[in-house]
Amino acid sequence: MTLFKSDACVVDVHTHVYLPEYLELLRHRNTVPFVLPPLKKGEDERLIILPGEDKDHSTQNGRPVGAAYYDVREKIKFMDLHGIDLSVVSLANPWLDFLPPTQTTLDLATRMNVEMEEMCLDKAAAGRLYGFGTLPVTSVEGSIKEVERIAKLPHLRGVIMGTAGCGKGLDDPELIPLFEAIARHQLVIFLHPHYGVSLPTSANTEVGHSLALALGFPFETTYAVSRLILSGIFDRLPDLRLLLAHSGGTLPFLAGRLDSCVIHDPLVASRLQHPPSYYLKRLYYDAVIYHETGVKATVDFADPKNIMFGTDHPFFPPLENQNGGPERWMSVDSNLAAITDSGLDKTVVQGILGENALKLLNLSPPASFKKKTL
Ligand code: URA
Ligand code: ZN
After folding, report:
1. Is the CB of 135 within 6 Å of ligand 1?
2. Which domains occur in the chain, in start order?
3. What pLDDT, in 10s, does the model give residues 162-186?
C-alpha cells in the first residue's frame, strides 16, 4: 500500500460523532441501542447499537466507546494524523430512529443540531468541520420543521438518514413532503445503513460484527435505494440529492441486473421514465469501499465527480490501539490507497479526495489548507 501524498484539499464526507447528549440518553437505556459501563475498571464504556447485538454471544458486549466517539479534539487529531483538511460530521447510527414521535424527540433533534453547529464552531475545530443534521424521523411533520432549522445553521449541509424512514422504508409515500422540503432547501441526504438484512444466522461460526458490517450494511443500502428508485421519487423530484454510504452498497455492480429485471417486469416497467441506472448514475457515492476494484467500479458506473473520500471514523480503529494513539488507521489507509493507487486520472483522484465534496456541499477550504498550499 502506497502512503498517500497529495496537494489536494482532502475532505472526509463519512465521519461520525455521538454527541454528548445522545450518549447520555443511551447510558439511561437497557434495550438496544444502549451504553454499558466498562467491563473492567479503567476501560471504556461499551456501545450496543445493532439490532439483536445484545442477544448474540459474540457481540453482546458491543464495542468500546472512547473519546474518539464524542470529543471534537480527537476528531481533529485524527484528521491531522491522516492529512484530512475538512470533515463533514454526522451523528452515528441509529440516530433518532428508535424514539417515538413525541415533542421530547423533536426537541432533542433541535438541540442536537444546534450542538452539531456548535461543534463546528468550537475553537478546537479551527474552521475544519461541517456537519449533517439529524431528523426526528418518526415524525414526518417534525422532520420537515427540523429541515427548515437545519437549512439556517451555517455549517450544516444536509441530513443523515437511515433506511427505515418513519418506519416503513424510504419508498413510503408519507415521506414525500419531507423529501420535497430537503430538495427545496438544497440539502443533501447522507443515506447510511444500520439495520442490515434478515439472513439466517449460523449456529456454528461466531462472526462478531464482521458480516453485519461488511455485508448486511451494503445489502441494506442496495435494497433501500432500489425501492426508493422504483417508487418514482426521482421523476417527481429530480433535484433530490442523495449521498450513498459505502459506495452505494452493491449498486454500481448490480445496476445492470436491476435495469434488466425492471424492464422485464410488467408491473414496474412503465412506472419509471428511465431505467433505474439512469437515476443511480445521478446519485453521489462515498468511496468507503477499501479496494481499488470497488472504487473503479463506482467511477466506471457513476460520474467520477459524484464520488467522495470518507473514513467512517471513529469506527474501525486499529485493534491493538483502540484509544487512538499516533498510529495511522489501516481502515483509512486502505480507503486512501484504493483511490490513489487505482490508476485513475490525477484530476479524478483529486476530485474524489476533496474537490467533489467541496462542490457538492459548498464547503470552503480551511485557512490551514490555504497556508499549506502557499
Ligand atoms: N459500525 C456502525 O455501527 N456504524 C458505522 O457507521 C460503521 C460501523
Ligand atoms: Zn458510517
Report:
1. no
2. 11-19+69-372 (3.20.20.140)
3. 999 999 999 999 999 999 999 999 9
